[in-house]
Amino acid sequence: MDLEIKNILDERKDLQKFLFIKGFLITTKDLKNIRDNFPFYSNFELKELNNFNFWIYKDVPFNYIENKGKLYFIIGHAYNPFTMEYDEKNILKTISEKNEKGEKDFIEGVNELTGIFLLGYIENDNFRILLDASGMQYACYGNVNDDIFVSSHIQLVNDLLHLDTLDYVKKLINYRWYHYMMGNYLPGDLTPFKEFKRIIPNTFIDYKDGIFSIKRFYPERPLEYVKNDYEYKKVIEEASEIMKRNMQLILKKWNKPAISLTGGLDSQTTLAAANGLYERYATFSYISMYRESVDAEVAKKRAEKFNLKHSIYKVPDNNNEIKDFDLLKRILQHNEGDIGSNKDNDIRKKIYLMNNFEYDVEVKNWIAETFRGYAYKYFGRKKMPKNLKPRHYTSLYKIFFLNRKLVYKTDKYFKEYLEKTNLKEKLFNYDESDFFVWEMMHGGKCGLNIGVMKFCFDITIPYNNRKFLDILLKTNIQDRISDKVHLDMTKYLNKELYDMNLRVINLNETRFRKFLANIYFTVNSSIPF
Prior knowledge:
The chain has 529 residues and is an alpha+beta fold. It has helices spanning 3-11, 88-101, 103-111, 154-161, 167-173, 229-253, 265-273, 292-305, 325-336, 344-356, 374-379, 390-397, 404-421, 423-426, 432-453, 466-472, 477-481, 484-493, 495-500, 511-526; strands at residues 24-27, 44-49, 52-57, 62-67, 70-79, 114-123, 126-131, 140-144, 147-151, 196-198, 203-208, 211-216, 257-260, 282-287, 310-314, 361-363, 458-460. A hairpin with a 2-residue loop joins strand 11 and strand 12 (211-216). The relative contact order is 0.14. The mean pLDDT is 96.
């Protein structure tokens, strides 16, 4: 239990609603006696189903149905651009019917879903659970004193169970270079506590007869790479149409959606996919540091070209301009898992948007890095080792120089991840570095971020669809690295936007930074200790 947080919130009742906001807990443990106290503070609603207690933060979508002795449930939102279904109860009905036909049909149904969710079913006292395509809904699971826990926030279970943080995690998060290369997240399926593990996207977590097990369900077959221009064009058209349908479905689920618009390609493609719907979308940017002002100006030009309302949120420069900054920063850090501090400008941004955002959902542009060859781009490489070893994963994960003990232990956790999830056996002909981006960078880091960002507003991500990502991974790696794939999607969806030829280059893409990163990756991956 974090007594500091408890003492703060017992005193400041007006801030209690922010603790584990939009979260959930599934458990066999009876916690009704503390429903009005820390850490729930009456903000979670209890539903008892099939010997499990579902604690769901108020207003979080929670749907369930029964079919042939199984209870199917989904926490969060989902929509299907292949059937155009957007009602979660109907989606569950379809998923349950597919599951009765067999696991293959069940997986096919799951792969079609866009959204941010945890989905599963209970049969007797056993269950199977999985996450959305990229794990944007963070979740962890564990068994403590014969009670089962599945939670959206690792510190929620810690506040209930008073666990001991792993020595490795203590040393890692205090390591000088830990915050570099994507910020705060842990390797493999690690959490700060030995009793709990993170759910990896593309895997089932099965609980049967008192034992947890992991089963990888994607990839399920070799990838059919495009062989000519005709096949490439078909891939671009198919992926673009999926994005377009996702943007149509968002309008059916929310009344006032706003696209997070920058000067980059990811948001440009999202904007292009909304072509024909511009009268029903708004756009926004924020400025929390100087360099974001350039992004905001390009975003404004893009929006004005198509007569979209564009809001620019100018975040205050000083912490003392934000009410309760220090208290809210501490709560947000706890919500993220207490695995490192965050930059003050990022905290100011979240608080400011929470207080000033005028729309009911952010249409976010994350996940595109999965098909953009991000590992190649970040490290400035034209080739990656075909068979990545645990040390390669460690080099992709963080910058380690002289602290070789941390390197060795980090290798160990990535080795465990590879063995438990059977990635090597199921990889077929996919590029393994894409799965580091997909399951570690996105599932490990970005999933945590989304959980914290729900403090501000609801979020949906049209790129977050497994079938969509799989389609784009068929393209040539050099086309992905050069962003030809992204640009051709924009061109297909909105030629006028494409012809504007506006783009702000990410500072992380500078040649010198890539050169240094590549040297580090090469050297650290080669050292035998």
